[in-house]
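Translate structure to sequence.
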């Protein structure tokens, strides 16, 4: 029998979801930076960006291929995360404990 957490769900399921969230955050950071560079280079159409990512073999999180809507979602999340007004604080990843020297700028400020 699996151990059950306080919320009534198996602990392994919660750990799996936590890991998925951490992996998604890492993916969004990497993909967002790459898409932002493509936009800065003058490639602004999400469908064109998706085609280029697929052609170069850049993996899409949870999907076999990039689509325009996935590119647009990453762009929205990237913009919110890096908004000048600090709308969404940066989150620590599972790879950087709170006492890590690799903390985000907002976490150390």
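Result:
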């Amino acid at each position: 029998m699996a151990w059950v957490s306080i919320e009534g769900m198996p602990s392994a399921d919660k750990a799996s979801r936590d890991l998925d969230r951490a992996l998604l955050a890492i993916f969004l950071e990497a993909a967002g930076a790459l898409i932002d560079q493509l936009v800065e280079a003058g490639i602004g159409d999400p469908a064109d960006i998706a085609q280029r990512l697929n052609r170069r073999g850049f993996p899409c999180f949870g999907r076999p291929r990039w689509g325009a809507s996935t590119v647009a979602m990453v762009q929205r999340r990237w913009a919110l995360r890096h908004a000048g007004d600090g709308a969404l604080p940066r989150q620590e990843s599972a790879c950087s404990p709170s006492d890590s020297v690799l903390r985000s700028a907002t976490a150390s400020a």
